[in-house]
Amino acid sequence: MSTTQAVPQREDTAIQGDLYMSFELGDKAWKLTASDGHRGASRYTVDAGDTAAVTHCIGQARERCKLEPQATVHACYEAGRDGWWLHRWLIEQSVDNIVVDSASIEVNRHARRAKTDRIDGDKLLAMLLRHHRGERVWSVVHEPTPEDEDARRTHRELARLTQERTSHTNRISSLLVLQNLRPHVIIGGRDWAAWWTRHGEQVPPVLRAEIEREHARLSLVKQQVKVLEAAQRQEVEAGRHPLVAQLTQLRAIGRKSAWVLDKELFGWRHFANRRELAGCLGLAPTPYASGDSQIEQGISKAGNKRARALLVELAWSWLRLQPDSALTQWFNRRFAGGGKRMRRVGIIALARRLAIALWRYLQSGEIPAGAALKPAAA
Predict the structure, then answer these.
(1) Full-model pTM
(2) Last residue of a domain, one of 143, 166, 194
(3) Quick one: which H or E segment has residue 27?
(4) How high is the pLDDT of residue 3?
(5) SS3 118
(6) Domain region containing 162
(7) Directed axis angle between helix 326-334 and helix 305-321, to 10°?
(8) 310 and 349: one domain?
């Protein structure tokens, strides 16, 4: 099911004979805006996920623009909840599609700006035309292979389960405090059952039942975490993830951290230089220089937040476990004596340098200067 509406659009210089189409993806409906860059745009509305309707709309747009049936179609949509399946389907239909980082799209800077799906679709179409004229108007998201995309599920699920485990533990602790009970054992640990048998009778029956249900959910989460961690460990020990094995040779980097760095960053992305790597992580500087105003706004925080947060954690571990490395000595000279704020600033700089050092280590086998390797297993 689809509806269409033709609207006037300012003439634009585009490649003659090609069709350009933007997708505004919603939960229930998709808005498609199409033009050849010379005629007015046509708008279509299709049910979300209805690929047959999308194919029909492309045919209608070709006919309206008087294009050949084999005319090339250029398309775009914003990266979001639909992920990569639509991109791959469009490529299979011979559509030249790109997925755009939504944070890189130009917006009106007025405090109150109109925003509708129609306006967004028109904006995407206009920027797509500019993109194909050679202008740099946005950031294009690089597609992982289906295998690389699927490989990220394990550690992402583990991260969510770890958060759930903490949430259940904190909830049980908060409920016990209502009765002035403060367990001296780990909630859900080996000694929990004995502690609960001794003190559970002090808890009113309804509250006790709630705590036991919460503990049942905690037990399920802990079991799922164990299963995933065991599978992860077996995969690495079987030699199926050489980058993980290589990273874990360095002191301060464990299996879980190496796994995330492999699947989120180094395993499928290719960087031409250290600036591309820092930009992907959001560890690139964002200066503000206008007239006499010269301000450094800090790191951009664009890109992969999981890898960025992990590298900051690894930077703190690196200081502790790699005291003789050149990176640690550089940090100590520059930031160690400058107070808490300077150390927080410095750790971001160290995380950037550490990412570059690990990239070079994986690319060429160059061990970070002064870094120690773990002792070889007997």
Answers:
(1) 0.85
(2) 143
(3) none
(4) 56
(5) helix
(6) 149-240
(7) 90
(8) yes
Q: Which long-range contacts (CB under 8 A, 24 or more apart) does 146-150 make?
A: 146/84, 146/88, 148/263, 148/267, 148/268, 149/83, 149/84
Residues 225 and 275 in one domain: no
Strands 42-47 and 73-78, sheet pairing: unpaired
- In this structure, what CATH number is given to the domain that contains residue 38? 3.30.420
Q: For residue 354, is it within any domain?
A: yes
Say how far apart CA 169 and CA 377 lie, in whole Å: 36
DSSP string, 282-338: T-SEEEEEETTEEEEEEE---S-HHHHHHHHHHHHHHHHH-TTSHHHHHHHHHTTTS
Could you say which of 240, 263, 290 is where a domain stops?
240
For residues 59 and 105, state if they share a domain: yes
Residues of the chain with pLDDT under 50: 7-14, 378
Query: Is the CB of residue 100 less than 8 Å from the CB of residue 78?
Result: yes
Answer whether 251's CB lies under 8 Å from 322's CB: yes
What digits encode the pLDDT tens for the residues 169-192? Answer: 999 999 999 999 999 999 999 999
Domain count across the chain: 3
The predicted structure's pLDDT at residue 155: 96
In whole angstroms, give the CA distance from residue 42 to residue 33. 6
Element at 320 (helix H, strand E) = helix 305-321
Cα separation values, 235 from 11, 228, 238, Å: 56, 11, 5
The pLDDT of residue 113: 84
> Do 39 and 123 share a domain, yes or no?
yes
Asked if 79 and 202 sit in the same domain, the reply is no
**Pair (299, 219) in one structural domain:** no
Which amino acid, one-letter code, is at 153? Answer: R
CB atoms near residue 207 (< 10 Å) = 13
Q: Which residue has the tokens 């047959």?
A: 52
15, 25, 69, 126 from 73: Cα distances, Å: 11, 18, 10, 15
Residue type, 199: H
How many whole angstroms separate alpha carbon 58 and alpha carbon 67? 11
Tell me if 274 sits within 8 A of 356, measured CB to CB. yes
Q: How many CA atoms lie within 13 A of 28 on its CB side?
A: 0
50 and 43 Cβ atoms separated by less than 8 Å:
no
What is d(CA 346, CA 341) in angstroms, rounded to the nearest whole number? Answer: 9
